[in-house]
Structures are given as structure tokens and as C-alpha cells.
Amino acid sequence: MIGKDIQRAKSLLEKGQLVGIPTETVYGLAANAYDAKAVSEIFRVKNRPSFDPLIVHIGCWEQVADFVGEVPVSARKLAARFMPGPLTLLLPKTDRLPDIVTAGSPQVAVRMPNHELTLDLLNSLAFPLAAPSANPFGYISPTTAQHVADQLEALVPYILDGGPCTVGIESTILGFEYGVPTIYRKGGLALEMIEEEIGPVRVKPFSTSRPQAPGMLQSHYAPRIPLKIGRIRELLPDFDMNRTGLLVFRRRVSGVPEAHQVVLSKNGDFAEAARNLFAGMRHLDSLDLDIILAEPVPEMGLGRAINDRLKRAAAQEG
Ligand code: TXA
Ligand code: MG
Questions:
Q1: Top-level CATH class of 2-203?
Q2: Per-10-residue mean pLDDT for the chain, 318 residues long?
Q3: All structural domains of the chain with their residue ranges
Q4: What is the pTM of this model?
Q5: Residues 45, 173 contacting (CB under 8 angstroms)
Q6: Closest-CA residue to 108 (of 43, 33, 26, 37)
Q7: Which of 3.40.50.11030, 3.40.190.10, 3.40.50.2300, 3.55.40.10 would CATH assign to domain 227-314?
Q8: Ligand 1 within 6 A of 107 CB?
Q9: Is there an atom of ligand 1 within 6 Å of 221 CB?
């Protein structure tokens, strides 16, 4: 069931049940982070492998003191500037948090979503919320309550509707590998913004958050129909134009039916393109097509995260 009732969401979560929650990035599938049994339900419902850890969502920064150890100075700076917002920090966990949340890692991923409804919910609860994106494992992340319902309605008692996500792409994950600020996943907070605050940061080569299993996690965010990235004009001759979907940055391409084309941002605005990306992929995936061709966007600002998601969507056969 979809609705806007925070009280209902609160009481379900307090009973150890799952609730779909809106955030500015993508919708999450939330449970009490201190309740190992409730958290194990998330893994079951998503069909998510147990080695893939979850992000813990907080309503105010002071809450980290409940389950996090020492916080590096640059993490504090980033939190002060960008939380709430599309940034997740990897920090040392304490025993207060069950191991299942972090898949046994001594580090916990922490984030404060910038969404009024969810901040109100979080601040009304006596515990933080563990939540991955609310999609079946490996599929495209949801950016509306209806996306969540389309796939998980039968498995989740309540989905809190906070409207379409305003950022539309998952949070940027930043950790401190050997003390060096390192981006584990490109996302809704641009690298440039982070560097403005704390200086140069390293970016993990494949931008997967678990280097131990890069191959497995590359095939994230994938539609069911194959997706190929490149210059549309060069790729098109290999396919039937009437059975090809296009995900283009600014302009439609002639020859392919307009109804099979998604333009991410007519004005070339990265934020708008990010907001439209997953809904566009879902839409094309719902049509009767052979293939989706996607054009990369310029590799700067949020464009980096958009290209990262396109590459992962294209890596599905791996
Ligand atoms: O924007 C977001 O981050 C959304 C919303 C719902 O908050 N959440 C999200 O969660 O994208 P999920 O589970 O789909 O992706 C979280 C990523 C996973 O790939 C996981 O491997 C990584 O974060 N992660 C979580 N905890 C980690 C840890 N302790 N160490 C390394 N990576 C971690
Ligand atoms: Mg996910």
C-alpha cells in the first residue's frame, strides 16, 4: 500500500516491519538498523546477497554517536556541509549495530537523506534505519513510490510516498582507505563539490563499493533489455530502428520512433538528466524492444555518476 502516513510508517518500523521510504536520491527499503531480524528481511525481500552491506540512515548528525566510533576530521567537515544530502560516509562502527547491517565489515555507511518526510520519520524514531535502494537486487533503482510498488508491493506492507526523487541517482559513497578520502561509488554529490571542501580525493577504479566482488556489483542498475553505450549514429546501423530504444542526453535522433526515445535534458543540465535517468531506463525497458542504445554524457560534475550508471546497466551480461 502507498500512502503519506508517517505514523503508520513509524508503527510498522517499530514492530520490526519493512517500509519503503522516499529520499532525494532514490527510494529506500527501510528497517530498524538495531534489529537484526528486521534487517534480514530486507535481504530476503530484495533477494540481495548477504555480503552486500546496507546504508544506515540518520535524522540528525548527533545520532552517529550511538553506533559510530571515531570520526575523521574531514568526515566531520563533509557532514557539516553536505548533510542532509546525497553523501554517504564510511565510518568505523561500534557493537551497537548488528553485523548483518555491514555484512561483517568494521565500517558502516552513514547517510542523512535530504527529504522532509523521511527526516521527520527518522527524527520520530528511537533507532536509525538500515535501507538499500528499494528494487529487487540488480534491477534499476526506484525514483517514485509507484516504481517501488511495481516490483515490491506484495512484499512490503507500506510505501511512504514523498513524490518523485529530486536528485534521482544514488548517493556518493566516500570512505577513508588508509586515511585517504576515497570515493567508492560516484553519485548525487559531485566530486568537484567534495574536493572544494577537503581537497583532492581518490576515486576507486570501477567505483564499486565492494572491491572484493567487483564483477558481481558491476551489473547493478540493469534493465531487462540489453543496453549498449556509444555514439548512437555509429551503433544504429547494426539494429532494427523500429525495435531500438534510445536514451539520449539532449537531442532526439531521426529515424527511430519518437516514442522509443528518452531525452534526459534538452538544455544539457546534468541535474535534470540525473533526475530522469532511472525513470527513462524503466520506461524503455517496459516497451517491446530488442535493445536500448545510450549515449554517454560529458564526464564532469554529475555527468560522471550518470556515465557510471550507464556503464553498470550495460554490464548486465557479465
Ligand atoms: O542514495 C542512496 O545511497 C540510496 C538511498 C536509499 O539512501 N541507497 C542505496 O543503497 O543506494 P544500496 O544498498 O542500493 O547501495 C549501497 C551501497 C552498496 O553497493 C554497498 O555495497 C555499499 O553501499 N556499502 C554499504 N555499506 C558499506 C560498507 N560498510 N563498506 C563498503 N560499502 C558499503
Ligand atoms: Mg542499490
A1: alpha beta
A2: 98 98 98 98 95 97 97 97 98 98 97 98 98 94 97 96 98 95 97 97 70 46 91 96 97 96 98 98 96 97 96 77
A3: 2-203, 227-314
A4: 0.95
A5: no
A6: 33
A7: 3.40.50.11030
A8: yes
A9: no
